[in-house]
Structure formats: structure tokens, C-alpha cells
């Protein structure tokens, strides 16, 4: 196991999603957040997951390439929308709904969810004036 970045205990089981430093408890996590952290620029070889080859079983003309979907994690607009607990609740509701299609239709009546959808679309399908020639 790795040492906790706060108390230096040798049983850190958790990793900060932002800077990837290890910590051992909720108390150490809170202490770490008060200091503030930034995404690490250099990743350790052991922290990098091997690229999994993922392919769509039934791609269509509307299927978004996986490379574009992966760009969503770097969008500040998407991250800002996901900071809203109401948006996260809506997403959880969609994931656990027996009819996700109707749940998404219902979610699209919420302006905050439409804002998230627009932010995602801006990443995977930029407007015509932002598309490369």
C-alpha cells in the first residue's frame, strides 16, 4: 500500500480524483481538500490504465466515436454542470429508470439538464463555425 499524503499512514486505500495522491480516511480526504490540489501533469506508469479496446456492437450513423466521448472528461462546461447536485440526481434517476428514453425526455424539460446536454454536444459535435475546415 502507499502512504497517505496527509498523515503518512501506510494504509491509504483511496486516491484523490484530481491530483491522484493517496489518502487513508474521510478525515484525511477533507484535510487534503482544504489544501487544494491540481491535476498531476506527470502520471506514474502504474497509474495509467492500459487502453481497453472498446467497440460498439451496433454502431449507427449517429454513434459518437469513443475518442470524442473521452473528451467530455476535459470539458470545463461539463464539469461545471456536474457540480450541481440536482443534475447528478437527474442522471441517477435516468440510470435507474425502467424506461431511460422517457426519463431523458422528462429530464430535457429541466433547464439545468438541457445546459448539461448542450455542453456535451458542444464537445462531441462542435457548431459549424467551430468545426475545422
Automatic annotation (TrEMBL):
Q: Which terms are listed as keywords in the entry?
A: Metal-binding, Zinc, Zinc-finger
* Molecular function GO terms recorded: zinc ion binding
**Stored CDD domains:** zf-HIT_ZNHIT2-3
Residues annotated as transmembrane: none
Against InterPro entries, the record matches this protein to: Znf_HIT (IPR007529), ZNHIT3_C (IPR048371)
The HIT-type domain is annotated at: 4-37
Q: What is this protein called?
A: HIT-type domain-containing protein
Amino acid at each position: 500500500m502507499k502512504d497517505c499524503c496527509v498523515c503518512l499512514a501506510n494504509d491509504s486505500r483511496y486516491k484523490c480524483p484530481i491530483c491522484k495522491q493517496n489518502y487513508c480516511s474521510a478525515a484525511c480526504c477533507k484535510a487534503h481538500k482544504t489544501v487544494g490540489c491540481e491535476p498531476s501533469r506527470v502520471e506514474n506508469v502504474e497509474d495509467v490504465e492500459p487502453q481497453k479496446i472498446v467497440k460498439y456492437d451496433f454502431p449507427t450513423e449517429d454513434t459518437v466515436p469513443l475518442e470524442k466521448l473521452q473528451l467530455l472528461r476535459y470539458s470545463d462546461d461539463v464539469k461545471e454542470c456536474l457540480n450541481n447536485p440536482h443534475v447528478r440526481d437527474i442522471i441517477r434517476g435516468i440510470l435507474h429508470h425502467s424506461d431511460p428514453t422517457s426519463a431523458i425526455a422528462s429530464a430535457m424539460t429541466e433547464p439545468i439538464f438541457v445546459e448539461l446536454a448542450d455542453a456535451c454536444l458542444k464537445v462531441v459535435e462542435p457548431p459549424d463555425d467551430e468545426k475545422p475546415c
